[in-house]
Write a structure and sequence with these properties.
Cytidine Deaminase, domain 2, 274 residues, 23% helix, alpha/beta, 2 domains, 32% strand
């Protein structure tokens, strides 16, 4: 499994220190069929040809399990990670899923998956410029507040949560859904409907953070994104690029900031790193 090392600033019970963490790599893989772009899926590099074959089976693109198409690695990035793969599939072997090539959004429910070419991934937008800061203790309190709103999770144990706050910790919206991305979309939608989206400075989420949630926060112009679990490598890369302050492993009065830490203050000032 592909991994990369990232530098972070860890907050633990009032003390901050520099850390080097290992994160799972997240990269886009473009799949072409018979010379035409088919779709893009996000994945951790490795066993890519198996991933492609399984995807084509599950989506009904190839219904014959005995048939193995020719797969050619068309492009790799500078790190040797496969970015584009070509498949040659006879027309008689293509199933009904091939006609849905422009909308395979169910593959991993993200902002990249379902697009047909990597060139479609670029989008215009200015890096977030947010001068106001948020105290690390307030962030811990935000998670406690979000957790207290998870009535569905308490009953089923099978839902994710997202919540938005202003910089002082006032709760603006809290939502649950079976999907992490859906919970974030619900929060942003309520903020827009209530005309409070401009007040939102922090969004907290249960689970891990991948590329698409970074983009959702960016498009909503919410500068601080905090997660209970780990971020992917691409999440950190995009957070740095787009000006998002990304904190992960936010639990038990601990958190690690992987990008733009200048927005986070620590009122106890017990910092081990200058």
């Amino acid at each position: 499994m592909a991994i990369n090392t990232y530098e972070g600033k860890k907050f633990d019970a009032g003390v901050s220190s520099k850390v080097m963490d290992v994160l799972t790599v997240e990269e886009a893989l473009q799949i072409n069929i018979n010379g035409e772009p088919f779709t893009i899926t996000m994945r951790t590099p490795g066993d890519d040809l198996s991933l492609v074959r399984g995807l084509l089976h599950s989506e009904g693109v190839i219904n014959d399990v005995a048939y193995t198409p020719d797969m050619i690695i068309r492009k790799e990035n500078e790190e040797g990670i496969i970015t584009v793969v070509d498949l040659n599939i006879p027309e008689e072997k293509l199933g009904s899923g091939y006609t849905n090539s422009r909308s395979l959004l169910s593959v991993s429910s993200c902002g990249i998956c379902g697009k047909t070419e990597l060139d479609e991934l670029s989008f215009m937008g200015k890096v977030l410029d947010h001068e106001k800061t948020v105290n690390i203790d307030s962030i811990h309190s935000m998670f406690l507040m979000m957790n207290s709103k998870q009535s569905v999770f308490e009953k089923s144990g099978g839902s994710h949560a997202a919540a938005a706050f202003d910089r002082t910790g006032v709760l603006l919206s809290s939502m649950e859904d079976v999907g992490r991305h859906n919970a974030v979309d619900k929060v942003v939608g309520e903020l827009i409907n209530d005309s409070t989206v401009r007040r939102a400075s922090v969004i907290t989420v249960s689970g891990r953070i991948s590329y698409e949630i970074i983009v959702k926060a960016f498009k909503a112009k919410i500068p601080v994104l905090c997660a209970v679990s780990a971020p992917s490598s691409l999440a950190v890369d995009y957070a740095k690029e787009l000006g998002i302050t990304l904190l992960a492993f936010c639990r038990d009065e601990r958190a690690t900031c992987y990008s733009n830490p200048e927005r986070i203050t620590n009122k106890t000032s017990n910092s081990q790193v200058g």
